[in-house]
Amino acid sequence: MVRQNSKARLEIRAATPDDVPGIVALVKRCYKDLPTYTPGEVRGQINNYPEGCFVAVLDDQYVGYCASMRIAGALAMTQHSWREITGAGYGSRHDPNGEWLYGYEMCVDPEVRGSRIGRRIYAERRSLVERLDLSGIIFAGRMPNYAKYRKKFADPRAYLAAVAAGEIHDPVIRFQLANGFEAVDVMEDYLPSDAKSLGNAALMVWRNPYVDHDQPKKFRVPRGVESVRIATCQLQARAVANFEEFISNIEYFVDVAAGYQSDFVVFPELFTLQLLSYEPQELSPVDAIARLTTYTPEIRKALADMAMRYNINIIGGSHPTLADDGDVQNVSYICLRNGAVHEQEKIHPTPNERYWWNIKGGDSIDAIQTDCGPIGVLICYDSEFPELARRLVDQGARIIFTPFCTDSRQGYLRVRYCCQARAIENQCFVVMSGNVGNLPNVHNMDVQYAQSCILTPCDFPFARDGIAAEATENVETMTISEVNLADLSWARAEGTVRNLADRRFDLYNVNWNRHPVQHRRELAIAPTSAGKHGPGGG
């Protein structure tokens, strides 16, 4: 008799960023009456506390998902909304020192209900709590039958008490009670879009039986080491004879950065303008940009090839690119050493970019997963809009790269001061890379001003002046520094100030348009600030 082995059909495991598309589709199937998550929100949930997010996969199909974070009991037990407690859905209020595990998402595919998927996922949560000696699990669950009983129970707390006493049935609350949870309160206006619960939620608590609840829990974030080496290239604008010479010059710096075993190397904004230097005659601004867009496939291929060969992640500055809709956008190509290529368009073109080159702004900005964790890219002027950096950090980015191109000290300092502010308010690293020198026959490269640098938050674990490394201004050079990502985790939890944790979500938050307008209206009047030369840098 031949014995045949078959692989397990059901797997419950920690969620990873690769699971994001499957999770978004699952949530859409589970909650047809509620808005679904964006990929960025799910990415943030996983990046902000990967240990607290689990997926259930049955026969290669996503059938269950939960998201959790650690949080202080004093915050979890007081009145709050779902948006406040979760940091607008990103899980960005995760507190590494929190003594409770707060569950803010739990869904099971309706097609497999009855297979105890939910109970298995809760078992994973309990196991995590017991392993970390946390006080227990807290969450605010839906009350989907409350709308039916509103006339009988005007007070949602009376409804909750009746369900707990077994007088009426609520499928979600009864499931939680049967799963060992205790209903302790009602969170009013918790999720306004939940019409069946009339916006209310039942605050449910499970207490860890293996800890002494009379002794307050005290956790500390260890001062660990998670080193990442970063190289920023301050690139000289120079005339080149052909495309091959330009790529050879770029490869030289990639080789140097790789020789120092750097994990990242970043190049300046519009560093490919050098390709216009060998045109037989000076082109008009519009013709020049049109010519540059023809190099896009070659630029992308060359950078991707170098990233693989030199085993380094390349932030490819930015390059004018013709979009599918016919618009020209300023795009950064992020080429990772595993062969993946990501694109990040500039969201805010400067007045000069719009006026001289007719460059249009992009519609989306998201964190990018790398082997050193999630990162973000803000091209020059974008660094002056704090909402963008906050979105990237909410999705888990700990390093933000800012390629820039400025023609004056004033323009440079606008970008520099804003990048330092982004590092402080988001408790992250910001890396700047700019052009120097000039190309007399190329529009907007007449003269450049740059002092590339690697900026840090201003707190005890970091450099005294918030600068990990800094280049000499206006000379071609490469600046390399090793930063410790674990210092960010410590500062966010135990720093002198805790900008991310101390946000007032009860007062404000940033709402990103999920469905950007697809058709843009052209400006009828050119901006008066547009000059003859210079991209307007920041």
From TrEMBL:
<protein>
    <submittedName>
        <fullName>Carbon-nitrogen hydrolase</fullName>
    </submittedName>
</protein>
<feature type="domain" description="CN hydrolase">
    <location>
        <begin position="228"/>
        <end position="490"/>
    </location>
</feature>
<dbReference type="Pfam" id="PF00795">
    <property type="entry name" value="CN_hydrolase"/>
</dbReference>
<dbReference type="GO" id="GO:0016747">
    <property type="term" value="F:acyltransferase activity, transferring groups other than amino-acyl groups"/>
</dbReference>
<dbReference type="GO" id="GO:0016787">
    <property type="term" value="F:hydrolase activity"/>
</dbReference>
<dbReference type="InterPro" id="IPR016181">
    <property type="entry name" value="Acyl_CoA_acyltransferase"/>
</dbReference>
<dbReference type="InterPro" id="IPR003010">
    <property type="entry name" value="C-N_Hydrolase"/>
</dbReference>
<feature type="domain" description="N-acetyltransferase">
    <location>
        <begin position="10"/>
        <end position="209"/>
    </location>
</feature>
<dbReference type="InterPro" id="IPR000182">
    <property type="entry name" value="GNAT_dom"/>
</dbReference>
<dbReference type="InterPro" id="IPR036526">
    <property type="entry name" value="C-N_Hydrolase_sf"/>
</dbReference>
<keyword id="KW-0378">Hydrolase</keyword>
